[in-house]
Structures are given as structure tokens and as C-alpha cells.
Amino acid sequence: MDPQDVPSSMPAGGARPEDRPGRLSVGVIGAGRVGTALGAALSLAGHRVVAASAVSEESRHRAALRLPGVVLATPQEVVEAADLVLLTVPDEALPQLVSGLVATEVPVAGTLLVHSSGRYGFGVLNEATRAGALPMAIHPVMTFTGRPEDVNRLAGISFGVTAPDALRPVAEALVVEMGGEPVWIPEDKRALYHAALAGGANHLVTLVVESMDLLGAAGVEDPGRMLGPLLGAALDNALRLGMNGLTGPVARGDAATVADHIAELARVSPAGRRAYIALARLTADRALAAGLLKPADAERLLEALAD
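RESULT FIELD:
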């Protein structure tokens, strides 16, 4: 398939999605939470999901539920049946999957190979690209639970897109058709992009759970109810105002309060104490650079944070 054969925009008018020009047959290798959500979204855009590979009973059930009528097949059969193949397997399995497909000599020339990994760009598909495949990385910036709302969550979210220049319009058009917003990520920035997302989302969960546990130890019966409004406001401030949304003892240069926190955490949560110190140091550095913290206050804070 030539990149020009795939539409770069959705046609006007009231045509049904499946009647638009350039509709593709889609295959899914890895019918997990992400793969079935993306497959369902492409189906809603008028593309036809024709085959999927699923190993576990759970993934087979999910494929039947989200991709009704789809044929369950081997990865090689999925590639043979589709114009566009979603490679939605765990990050660590992706290089081996690509190598394995190429080793079987399944015909990939002209096939759009799309992976959803945040970690990799299109370089991980090089073996298949040399065999004629059309590679692209399309990563939805969202968590997936396997619940029905996963597909709806694609609407309006960002997708990190990385592809050869000639395929960039195709990759971006697919994202738009799924209801997302394509954001271009250069190949050599893909690891940094993924580190930023994982650090923000994954560590946020750890911080929230740690705070809930500490509040429970302090006698609060419903820590989530207490934290919800506070953390919601803090997140909103950070996204809108950056460091200017910072409040609390570090922003005030209150070294004595910070020292009390560290002492209490040493008793209740030594691991939490180490994380508190590391994050308080980073917060102080950023507050100082933003002009929110005076150098003298920063010096006292750093003394309190000396580990």
C-alpha cells in the first residue's frame, strides 16, 4: 500500500464511516486493553477489523466483546489478512515480535505496521521496514483498565506520533479518526517523552497511595475523601500555572516544618521519608529557579533536607 492511498482527512457530508474512501482492513496482534480499544476506535471510524491474535482466555473474551465478528488467528495470519496491523504487545515483547514475524517470511510489503508503545519510535520496526512494511508509532497518552469506557477515553486525548516523514500524514490522520490529537515526537526523543509520562502518571499513583496510608496512620477514616479536593486543586494549579501554582512549606521556605515532617516520616515510613527528601529538594531547586524562594530560605531548607 502506498501512503497516498490512505486519506489524510475525513470527508465532509453525511456518509457512513464505512463508506469513506480508503477504508482499511485492520488486524490486531495482542488483543489486550490497548489493542482492542484502538481496534474498536478504528472500527467506529469505518475501518474493518478482520483478525486478531489473542493468547489468554481473557484477551479472547475481550476481543469477542469489543471486536464482534473478528477472526482469532495466529500473528502471521493476522498480517496476511490486514492492510493495517496494530502491534499492541508489551514493550519488552515488541522487538521479538517484529523479528519473529520477519523470520517467518510473512509478506509485510506495503502493510502499515503500527505499534502503540510509548517507549519506542518507528526504529524498533526496522527489520520489517527493510522487508517493505510501512512503520509508525502511535501511542495513546491514557491509562486503560479494560472496561467499556476505554474507547470513549480516546476522544480528545493526545497521541505521541513518530513515523518516517512520508508517513507522518497517514499516522496523524489515523489518530484524528480515532478522535485523538496527534502530537509529533522525534525519534530520538521517544525515551525522554516516555520517561516524562511514566514519571508523572505512575509516580503520582504512588504519591497518592503513600499520602492515604500516612493519613490512615494519623487516624483519618476516609483519606481519599480528604485528599480528593486538595489534590484536584493542586493538579489544576500545576497544569495551569506551573511552579507558580506551588504552595506549602517548601514554597514558604519553612525549614522547621520540613524538618518536623522528616523526623515523623523516619518513624512511620522510612521509605516515604527518602522520597519526601528527594522531592522536597527538587521542589526547592525549582522554586528557587522560578524566583519563588529566596536564596537564604533555600539554604535553610537544604540544611533541613540533608540526608
